[in-house]
Design a protein that fits this description.
- By secondary structure, the chain is of the alpha+beta class.
- The longest helix is centred in the middle third of the chain and has 15 residues.
- The strands form 3 sheets. Strands 7-12-10-9-8 form a 5-stranded mixed β-sheet. The chain has a 4-stranded antiparallel β-sheet with strand order 1-5-3-2. The chain has a 4-stranded mixed β-sheet with strand order 4-13-6-11.
- A hairpin with a 5-residue loop joins strand 2 and strand 3.
- The protein has 2 domains: about 130 residues, no CATH class; about 110 residues, no CATH class.
Length: about 280
Amino acid sequence: MSVIPSGRRMWPSVVVMVFALISAVTAQTPKPAFEVASVKSNKSGQRQGRIQLEQGDAVSMVNQALRTVITFAYRVPVYKLTGGPAWLTTERFDIVAKAPAGTTLDQKLVMLQTLLEDRFKLRIRPETREGDVYALMLARSDGRLGPDMRPAKVNCDGRPHGITQPAPGVRPECGSVGGLAQFSAGGIDMPLLAESLGMMMQQTVVDRTGLTGRFDLDLRATQTGPGAVRPGVGVPPPEGFERPTVFTAVQEQLGLKLQPTRGPVEVLVIDSVERPTED
């Protein structure tokens, strides 16, 4: 499945971002909308889908669960989207639309929000709740970092930090690359590392390291949580080899630790949604 590069924003301060997006939409009359749009159920039974938002003026989201579409429209991680009926995950849809010439990605996402409101009667709201979180902290009392984390070699201030595709085995200077529980970054700060670990673990992680500045790092671990998948599917590891858990890897490789605690959890709540009338 192809997706838009999430690294352009890397999910910064989700609730603030969602408030801004919702305010931007409601403040405009009429709301920005696609020139034409088609919504159909996809009953192919196939597991693979396709998402195309960036090239040209076309928008195509094929064989996608509506919950996935909502996360793209509002740039919110799926674990921070709550509420709604079960069919948001089990049923699939094809959404094909055309935006006015020269429309930016940000504008397309606002138009996708409009489509969700009009065609699916989606009503959402951001909310901050008290819940379980992990605090990212220094593992050692002397503050010494792990062998795979060090101050950045390149000054990345003022340069966008996003998911990049460098040559295999090469860490980007000011960006990050990774998959399931494998993450390499250049010039990353601690709030962004906490966000990235939250994406990896599908749970809120807050930065309490006290570290300032930017760092280069490499993390290799086994993904935690339900449905965990070993990195490198299809490439069997050496006999007896086991990757450490995220908790162990963060401590041994980065010199940090993930401490369970309670704190504010920013979520996007689905108040109501309906199946669309197809066209």
